[in-house]
Amino acid sequence: APAVISRALPGGVGYIRMAAFDAAAADSIRKQVTALRGAGAQAVVIDVRNNAEGDLANGLAAARVFVESGTLAIREMKGGKREPVEAAAMTAPGGKDTKTLAATAVVVLVDNGTAGAAELFASALAENHKGELIGEHTQGRAAAQKLVRLPDGSGLWLSSTRYLTAAAKPIHEQGLAPQVEVEEPVVEFGETPSGDDPILAKALERLKKAA
Q1: Which of 44, 60, 59, 62 is nearest to 6 (CA)?
Q2: In whole angstroms, what is the distance from residue 18 CA to residue 2 CA?
Q3: Is the C-alpha dihedral spanning 67, 176, 133, 180 positive or negative?
Q4: Element (H, E) at 33
Q5: What value, to the nearest 5°, has the Cα angle with vertex 169 and ends 95 and 73?
Q6: Are strands 143-149 and 155-164 parallel, antiparallel or unpaired?
Q7: pLDDT tens string for the chain (211 positions)?
């Protein structure tokens, strides 16, 4: 399945599903949003629920599509040294600077399965007031880690770099709290989901009120 798919929803809203943040994520999302806007979409819903795949840098690159300037996140290195990641410093694949789609109204759907690059993407949009987070509290896994083998044969994951929000709030092991909290329905093992999507429904409701 492709990492990024999109479709038009009623009321001039585009829907983009980000299943993973691969190396082409920023370019893919830019093309999808541009196409949706060309088809008349005035707002876009970006769904990063259950998205825990992709390098952290890919989430930051995708965020730059919507954030023209400002801090996307803060890297915290071993020893406590902090380094801001600025939107202006991000470039598209190939090193070529590209125009953002900062004027697009965006909401981002998140849940307990949203982790890693998806959390950095969501946080960057929310902190820069480019996208409202709707759904559940995210997983809290935003660090560069490596596995160290121990003499007894076991392993230990060590974090060399942790990421904070632009407001210097920890993401790793803390997660992101959505501005609008909506729980996904709990489905018992063996049962079939009803087909209702309360998180998406709330996003559409919020966009309709803002229009």
Answers
A1: 44
A2: 9
A3: negative
A4: helix 25-38
A5: 5
A6: antiparallel
A7: 678 899 999 999 999 999 999 999 999 999 999 999 999 999 999 999 999 999 999 999 999 999 989 999 999 988 889 999 999 854 444 444 445 687 788 999 999 999 999 999 999 999 999 999 999 999 999 887 666 677 887 776 566 789 999 999 999 989 999 999 999 877 555 555 556 899 999 999 999 887 6
Which residue carries 């023209």 as its tokens?
68
Q: What is the pTM of this model?
A: 0.87
Q: For 113, left (φ over 0), alpha (ψ -120 to 50), or beta?
A: alpha
The helix (run of H) or strand (run of E) holding residue 63 is helix 56-63
DSSP 88: G
Burial string for 169-186 (b: 16+ CB within 10 Å, else e) reads ebbbebbbebeeebebee
**What whole-number distance in Å separates Cα of residue 69 and Cα of residue 152?**
48
DSSP 8-state secondary structure symbol assigned to residue 191 = P
What's the confidence (pLDDT) of residue 93? 46
Task: Encode 104-147 in three state secondary structure.
Answer: CEEEEEECCCCCCHHHHHHHHHHHCCCCEEEECCCCCCCEEEEE
CA distance 183 to 49: 12
Amino acid identity, residue 109? L
The identity of residue 63, as a single letter, is A
